[in-house]
Design a protein that fits this description.
This protein is mostly helical. It has 15 helices and no strands. It has one domain (34-79, 86-228, 235-318). Helices cover 73% and strands 0% of the residues. It is globular, with a radius of gyration of 19 Å. Keywords: Cell membrane, Membrane, Transmembrane, Transmembrane helix. Belongs to the EamA transporter family. It is a multi-pass membrane protein.
């Protein structure tokens, strides 16, 4: 990385256009976050196909590792450099470990140790709460009363969507999986708040590239056995297609757009849009695996949309939320 020259440091700072709203003629940040969260939910069906031939941790490492390599090339082409300030190195390492290695690994592992319903509720429902807790530490984001009220409505909706299609249990045999799933929310809330000060200094592309790089690096020790145990010759086109979709669409495009849009409306507000993910996951089960739809899921979906609309409208009327970095990551 080395010490950066003055000219390169200027290139590191995102332009005013990069930090401005997505444009009067473009899609709003709210709509964009909703679309991305929905795509992440549909991706559950795609991942299920990919895991038929690949170990879960190996799938994750390939997904984020290949994405990071491609993004370094894109970063060099778009911004003319790939470096970061040496003083910020520890911030990217922390984001990589918590926001990529731990978060993504806990999602995959928790499913093996608890029910899908438990994993979905505990990893998604508390996420915005922790984003709201961490937000004042890293930013000066103000938590509105309407955000809390409508957020609870959305949370109730997501719980209904998940419970209607499965059974939630706090059985002691599922304790490890439940704790791992709950840890996803803690890691996700931290990541959502902690990356905003960094996005005020670096572009979404540069921040995401380095976060994925360090996240992949710390995944490597957990994939050593899987490399030799995988039948590489037997991997079919369906698995290759699932991995390619995850790399290009779900990881590179979605993460870049999410990290660009999130600072415009605040970490806590943006986190509630992740409630669309389980709804889309349930829909993907219906479309691709002929899973049944229950009336409770439809009621939950309506509550989620009501809550998200309520969250979005007050912020939209008052203008874009302006983030100011706190002292913790400076």
């Amino acid at each position: 990385m080395g010490r950066l020259a003055t000219g390169e440091m200027k290139r590191l700072k995102p332009s005013k256009a990069a930090l401005a709203p997505l444009g009067k003629q473009g899609v709003s940040a709210y709509f964009l976050l909703g679309i991305i969260a929905f795509l992440w939910g549909l991706n559950y069906a795609v991942v299920r196909v990919g895991l038929e031939s690949l170990d879960p941790m190996l799938f994750l490492m390939l997904r984020f590792g290949v994405s990071a390599i491609l993004m370094f090339g894109l970063l060099r082409w778009k911004e003319g450099s790939i470096g970061i300030s040496p003083g910020d190195l520890w911030k990217f390492i922390a984001l990589g470990i918590i926001g990529t290695t731990m978060l993504e690994s806990f999602v995959v592992v928790s499913i093996d140790y608890t029910t899908l319903a438990n994993s979905s509720i505990l990893s998604i429902a508390p996420w915005p709460i922790f984003a709201a807790i961490f937000a004042p530490i890293f930013t000066k984001e103000r938590i509105r009363r309407s955000l809390i009220g409508y957020g609870l409505v959305s949370m109730l909706g997501v719980i209904l969507v998940i419970l209607a299609g499965g059974s939630f249990s706090l059985d002691s045999d599922l304790l490890l999986g439940n704790l791992l799933a709950f840890s996803v929310s803690v890691c996700g809330g931290f990541y959502s708040a902690a990356c905003i000060p960094i996005l005020q200094k670096y572009s979404a592309l540069r921040m995401t590239t380095w976060m994925f790089s360090f996240g992949t690096l710390f995944m490597l020790p957990f994939t050593t056995k899987a490399w030799g145990a995988t039948d590489w010759a037997g991997i079919g086109w369906s698995t290759i297609g699932a991995l390619a979709c995850n790399i290009f669409v779900i990881t590179i495009i979605c993460f870049l757009l999410w990290n660009k849009a999130m600072p415009q409306i605040g970490a806590a507000t943006a986190s509630f849009y992740r409630y669309l993910t389980p709804l889309a996951a349930a829909l993907s089960g219906v479309l691709f695996f002929q899973e049944p739809v229950y009336s409770g899921q439809l009621v939950g979906a309506c509550l989620m949309f009501m809550g998200l609309i309520g969250i979005s409208l007050p912020a939209a009327r008052s203008g874009t939320v302006k983030q100011k970095a706190g002292s913790s990551l400076n």
